[in-house]
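Below is a typical protein record.
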Amino acid sequence: MEKNFTGKQVQQAHMRLAMRRRQWIRSALPEFRGSIRIADVMAAEPGPARDAMIHAWCAAVWQAWQDSRAPIAALLKDELAIE
């Protein structure tokens, strides 16, 4: 979200991480996981409306996991040189 990567770039980063790393950081599950649910995303009309809802859903999820941002950022910096 912060870097404005495309979905394809995110997918490629996940694949690179999966090939390199076997031990993963553990983050506490947030009590509140965001105000938008996947059902809300799927209820949006396909096309620009759904694309906007996907973006809003991603932002809501990332906000819910904000307490885990620092270790995730460190992992991406160490493993993929993403700053």
Residues 30 and 65 are 6 Å apart (CA to CA). Residues 7-80 form one domain. The chain has one domain: 7-80. The chain has a mean pLDDT of 90.
